[in-house]
């Protein structure tokens, strides 16, 4: 299929980028070289950046149903002229950006352009951003920069003023469900459920569609929140959220290490049980080092907790929908718990519902900023008590 077919719910943006790629041959000197792709988590901004990069370096502009070698290499992360920078850390390091700048100055090996993609550019501190600034302002003639962030406001004004901003929409439930049916072969009911619960987040929708246990954990979290009456309930729920996040993060980190070890053996021509040669041991052990596993577990734990916070927010979102008589227009996320949410909408004032959404947002910011997860969760849940 075309490289653009995997982009969900962003047709106007895809059409625009197709036109830009198609015109680069005749208007090469005027093509924008610094881009900022903005969209909420799960909107597909990173996938769109990869598709754009593939279209820029592929001779068929990523349009043919049969993927070219260049397209396959870009999507696999192995094309010599397309470089990605993504991180599991809290921030992107200054040396990583300096290395990218050195790469950007090199002439492309096989493609007409060199493309640099930075995911989560909002994770840069100001000092690191300043290193990138001059290169974004005056990029090498042969290089295109594609930066990704949740919103333009998450990026320093000096960066966003020197880029062309592409804003992504939140994909509709219908679009996400269709993607799940076509790409994963999910049945219609499960696809619709996953799309509704994910609220436009494609990655989470895929997780809900493929892992029934995650959906069960989510359902339990909603019920626990709606039954919470005392501070002791809040403390118990906070511990449960933190423990589940740690358990899932550990499983996911270990599974990722196993995949990378298998890839390492495959790339180096080693059988699964074959002893790793001494000259490769250092690189092999680095994959599963304690520090690396701990770093990945912490990062993944934050992602799991973030998903839990989104679930909690959806409850108060539904409360607001009922309080404003908007269910027919926008629907409820947690339909299965409609009766309990209706009762909560009566007990809470409209401002009370909005305040609780803000309390969850505050906890999210604290946890993202390396706060004490359990304490932040306890404080937040206590503030959600009615």
Automatic annotation (TrEMBL):
Residues 31-171 form the AAA+ ATPase domain. Gene3D superfamilies: P-loop containing nucleotide triphosphate hydrolases. It comes from the Bacteria. It holds the Pfam family DNA_pol3_delta2. NCBIfam families: PRK07940.1. This is DNA polymerase III subunit delta.
